[in-house]
Amino acid sequence: MFQEILAYILSTSGWVLVSSTLPTDYWKVSSLDGTVITTATYWSNLWKTCVTDSTGVSNCKDFASMLALDGYIQACRGLMISAICLGFFGSTFALVGMKCTKIGGTDKNKARIACFAGVNFLLSGICSLSSCSLYAHRITSEFFDPMFVAQKYELGAALFIGWSGSILCILGGTMLCFSIASSKSRSQANYIYKGTASHISSFPRGQAKPVTQRPPPDYSNSSRMQHFDKNVYV
């Protein structure tokens, strides 16, 4: 039960971080520095691109058309939305499959549900990790490309939040998947113990079953006559 609770806390925390990554502003950021202060900060996410001047005023422009976007942005959107949906289903099934709850049926069914929830969290972490890594790869490839003459960006805070949430989801999902193996071994041990206890309890208390039982001696008259044949006529 402690393993399942810890796994649920880790995976749910990771899902919350992944969910907060999608609308976060700073996926990539760049700045123009003056002699004393930063004159302008350019930043962008999956939905818009903005510029913030030194006074703190931001001017943003939403992406006009989804079909006109770059392919990597569309892929990152789909992966992040899939990660959030999988994490939601995983948290719901994990509540049903945990042993500390009263729903879900027998322990065997609850273990299967918990394992299915772990698979959902694993897929959620993999989708989020792929999305953040794809976006970061595009940023770094443009930054180190000497032929790229447009505005160059660096990694934003949203990517690190997404990576952290992905790792937590993967860890929690793995622990939930292993909970079904521990449940099977525990049920087999209980079955063996109950079978042994029932076998022992079939005998009276304080008496042990002899290994080999010799037949009782025959004290009938015929046996006596055969054993004491010399004194028969006395």
Automatic annotation (TrEMBL):
Spell out the Gene3D superfamilies in the cross-references: 1.20.140.150
**TM stretches of this protein:** 79-101, 113-136, 156-178
* Gene Ontology cellular-component terms listed: bicellular tight junction; plasma membrane
The name under which this protein is listed is Claudin
Q: Which family does it belong to?
A: Belongs to the claudin family.
In this chain, the stretch annotated as Disordered covers: 203-234
Instruction: Give one GO term, molecular function aspect.
Output: structural molecule activity
Q: Which Pfam families does this one have?
A: PMP22_Claudin
Any idea where this protein resides? Cell junction, Tight junction; Cell membrane
Q: What does this protein do?
A: Claudins function as major constituents of the tight junction complexes that regulate the permeability of epithelia.
What PANTHER family does the record point to? CLAUDIN (PTHR12002)
Which keywords label this protein? Cell junction, Cell membrane, Membrane, Tight junction, Transmembrane, Transmembrane helix
Note the InterPro entries from the entry.
Claudin, Claudin10, Claudin_CS, PMP22/EMP/MP20/Claudin
Membrane topology annotation: Multi-pass membrane protein
